[in-house]
Design a protein that fits this description.
Length: 187
């Protein structure tokens, strides 16, 4: 069992197979592109916001407590890997969410904030802003902080501050986004 659980890829493949079995077993004939997109939207959303909260509640607050000789373990290995999943989960959460709205027949109405889709539309726009923060502010600045892109000490310090503010903005926006998502009753 330890060998099985020690292999994340194998665990994920078995989890996906189990998911398909549950879908087919509990909803035979009812699996639609919309239901698959809803499931994928939830999966990628949990991954995205879970990593956002990891960065904001764990990694960033603990960095000052980590001895200098141990910091490269975070900056060279953990953070780049976490940021990979973070940025792609952000993109895939938005894309699958847009597909859910499209398959449900309210994509345009939501994005243009038409009633009765204003609530979900606001949530969609918040998520789009958050994903843009990830790709266009957090990631480019983190590349400087982590040394993926050349930057002097002052540029790294400025990039760290900018990335942190954008990340905290996403943390601030996450709760209202959650509210709009769970409060929408149209799909």
């Amino acid at each position: 069992m330890a060998k099985f659980f020690g292999n994340l890829n194998l665990v994920l493949v078995v989890s996906l197979i189990l998911t398909v079995l549950v879908m087919v077993g509990l909803h035979p004939g009812q699996i639609t592109p919309n239901s698959v997109m809803r499931w994928a939207h939830l999966f990628f959303g949990v991954l995205w916001i879970g990593l956002l909260y990891y960065f904001n509640f764990v990694q960033v607050p603990q960095m000052p407590n980590i001895p200098d000789e141990a910091k490269p373990a975070v900056t060279k290995h953990i953070a780049p890997s976490a940021l990979f999943y973070f940025r792609w989960a952000a993109l895939l959460t938005v894309v699958t969410g847009l597909f859910v709205a499209m398959f449900s027949g309210y994509l345009v109405e939501s994005l243009t904030l038409q009633a009765p889709f204003t609530m979900i539309g606001v949530g969609m726009w918040i998520a789009i802003i958050m994903a843009a923060n990830v790709w266009f502010i957090i990631w480019p600045n983190q590349k400087k902080v982590l040394g993926i892109v050349e930057a002097d000490a002052d540029a790294k310090a400025g990039a760290a501050k900018m990335a942190m503010m954008a990340s905290r903005t996403n943390t601030l926006l996450s709760l209202p986004m959650f509210y709009t998502m769970v409060s929408f009753n149209g799909g």
